[in-house]
């Protein structure tokens, strides 16, 4: 009498003497559980012919037995596994159970020349929605073509990683970091196949704010390489038609461009500041909007940072360093680092804004900020006068750091847009009463008036100071050029806080103004080969 072949949905807790024709969607790594004491575990994802997915595990001595079977995308008869309620972390779709393979479980090959396309559907996240997942515990599934693989990074004797760049149908390039076993297994295979731009599906990966936005593998993640999909041919045709444009995006390093990774948000994506503050730690990053002013109490408004990943390093700007964050040999750059307060109708929030986003608000260069501090020139009033003109829409990251034995919450601006830059979008949230929004939603005559008003931003003495600082900057640049052979290659601590020394002497602007200033990859065959990418990241 022939066996009855059941569907996954018919196999419920306590079922016995059943058989399912199952196709392997994903074969995981042999890992240790996080319980005490830990156990060796291996996970699989299977689907039946109806497309119902089921999470499957096996433990300890059974791993060796079942790892000989259950190869990716092949089909097998699976009989008499133990059926238990699914772990929410690994539950897939509507099926509420998972299977445990043990010595009673029977696995049989299903003979066929070529396995069929995967019948199951994957719930994929659009890259344009990744900001909703940033730095949260909500993992996502994504699909894309791998167009570049960076070299392996040995972080310490027990930790390695590899960064890859993937692109999806939205033509968005994203960095993904494969850690340890993911690099050893999937990363090495992807690197070997990089000339073919392999299509991958990444399951349960985390979105981080490192490198503005990027992916990183977690303990529970899974990587499917070149899965047999019903729409694989159409995806390949799309990639072929857009190959040159994708190559240009790769050359432009858009995977490292904050404006590209975090374009202006939709109105419904902007949260009230009070709601963002209340949602921590469930949501640690979000778009907010408000007016800006300086947060007083700081004496230093600049920092030195890695020119590659922008992490703070304690180094001179003429040094060449091995960055402890991105693990790349790179130059050191000056960056503006300004403490600000953003206010909307619901609340206010203190945060740090850095780099180009800070410079477009304050109209000082980092070198001018450094020179002013070194010469004792107090510019708090000028900074605040510049900042308070603006209403901004910012993508904020909130995090906690230890301070005097307690956790202290801090906030950083990842990307900021001014009202002028969003002139084609209405500002959605109510602002504080009596707030004048500085916007460029005006006629050409108003724009001319604005240009004139900028000339009045600084007092005559302050403008003289800036002219002298600029002159000093030109002199310093010439001196640096003359001594550029004296470079250093050192390693430094990952992060240093901004100095706030209240004892540092300062001078009024008028007094100070009187003093003299002091791939390789699949796109390589299009035109020229892409430049080497120094970008890297950590989880």
UniProtKB/TrEMBL annotation:
<dbReference type="Pfam" id="PF08646">
    <property type="entry name" value="Rep_fac-A_C"/>
</dbReference>
<feature type="region of interest" description="Disordered">
    <location>
        <begin position="475"/>
        <end position="539"/>
    </location>
</feature>
<feature type="compositionally biased region" description="Basic and acidic residues">
    <location>
        <begin position="500"/>
        <end position="517"/>
    </location>
</feature>
<protein>
    <submittedName>
        <fullName>Replication protein A 70 kDa DNA-binding subunit B-like</fullName>
    </submittedName>
</protein>
<feature type="domain" description="Replication factor A C-terminal">
    <location>
        <begin position="300"/>
        <end position="416"/>
    </location>
</feature>
<feature type="compositionally biased region" description="Polar residues">
    <location>
        <begin position="475"/>
        <end position="486"/>
    </location>
</feature>
<dbReference type="InterPro" id="IPR013955">
    <property type="entry name" value="Rep_factor-A_C"/>
</dbReference>
<dbReference type="InterPro" id="IPR012340">
    <property type="entry name" value="NA-bd_OB-fold"/>
</dbReference>
């Amino acid at each position: 009498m022939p066996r009855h072949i059941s569907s996954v949905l018919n196999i419920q807790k306590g079922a016995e003497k059943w058989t399912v024709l199952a196709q392997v969607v994903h074969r995981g790594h042999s890992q240790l559980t996080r319980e005490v004491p830990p156990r060796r575990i291996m996970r699989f994802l299977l689907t039946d012919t109806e497309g119902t997915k089921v999470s499957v595990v096996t433990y300890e001595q059974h791993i060796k037995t079942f790892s000989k079977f259950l190869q990716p995308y092949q089909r097998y008869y699976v009989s008499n596994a133990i059926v238990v309620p699914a772990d929410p972390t690994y539950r897939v779709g509507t099926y509420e159970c998972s299977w445990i393979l043990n010595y009673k479980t029977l696995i049989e090959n299903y003979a066929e020349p070529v396995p069929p396309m995967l019948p199951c559907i994957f719930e994929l996240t659009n890259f344009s929605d990744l900001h909703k997942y940033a730095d949260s515990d909500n993992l996502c599934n994504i699909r894309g073509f791998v167009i570049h693989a960076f070299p392996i990074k040995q972080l310490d004797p027990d930790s390695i990683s590899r960064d890859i760049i993937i692109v999806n149908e939205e033509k968005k390039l994203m960095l993904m970091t494969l850690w340890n076993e993911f690099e050893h297994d999937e990363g090495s295979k992807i690197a070997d196949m990089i000339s073919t731009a392999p299509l991958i599906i990444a399951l349960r990966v985390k979105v981080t704010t490192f490198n503005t936005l990027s992916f990183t593998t977690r303990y529970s993640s899974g990587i499917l390489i070149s899965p047999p999909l019903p729409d694989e041919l159409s995806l390949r045709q799309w990639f072929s038609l857009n190959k040159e444009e994708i190559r240009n995006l790769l050359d432009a390093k858009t995977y490292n461009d904050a404006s590209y990774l975090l374009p202006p948000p939709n109105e419904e994506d902007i949260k009230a500041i009070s709601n963002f503050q209340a949602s921590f730690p469930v949501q640690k990053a979000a778009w907010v909007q408000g007016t800006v002013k300086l947060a007083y109490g700081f004496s230093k408004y600049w920092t030195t940072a890695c020119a590659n990943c922008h992490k703070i390093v304690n180094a001179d700007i003429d040094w060449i360093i091995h960055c402890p964050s991105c693990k790349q040999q790179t130059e050191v750059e000056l960056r503006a680092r300004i403490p600000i307060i953003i206010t909307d109708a619901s609340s206010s929030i203190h945060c740090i804004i850095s780099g180009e986003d800070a410079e477009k608000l304050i109209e000082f260069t980092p070198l001018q900020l450094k020179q002013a501090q070194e010469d004792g020139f107090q510019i708090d009033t000028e900074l605040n006068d510049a900042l308070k003109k603006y209403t901004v829409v910012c993508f904020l990251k909130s995090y906690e750091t230890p301070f005097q034995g307690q956790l202290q919450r801090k906030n950083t601006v990842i990307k900021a847009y001014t009202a002028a830059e969003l002139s084609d979008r209405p500002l959605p949230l109510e602002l504080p009463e009596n707030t004048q929004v500085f916007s460029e939603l005006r006629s050409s005559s108003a724009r001319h008036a604005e240009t004139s008003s900028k000339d009045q931003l600084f007092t005559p003495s302050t403008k003289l100071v800036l002219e002298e600082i600029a002159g000093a900057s030109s002199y310093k640049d010439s001196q640096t050029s003359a001594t550029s052979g004296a470079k250093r290659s050192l390693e430094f601590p990952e992060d240093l806080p901004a100095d706030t020394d209240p004892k540092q002497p300062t001078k009024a602007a008028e007094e100070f103004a009187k003093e003299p200033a002091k791939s390789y990859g699949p796109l390589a065959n299009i035109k020229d080969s892409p430049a080497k990418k120094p970008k890297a990241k950590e989880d």
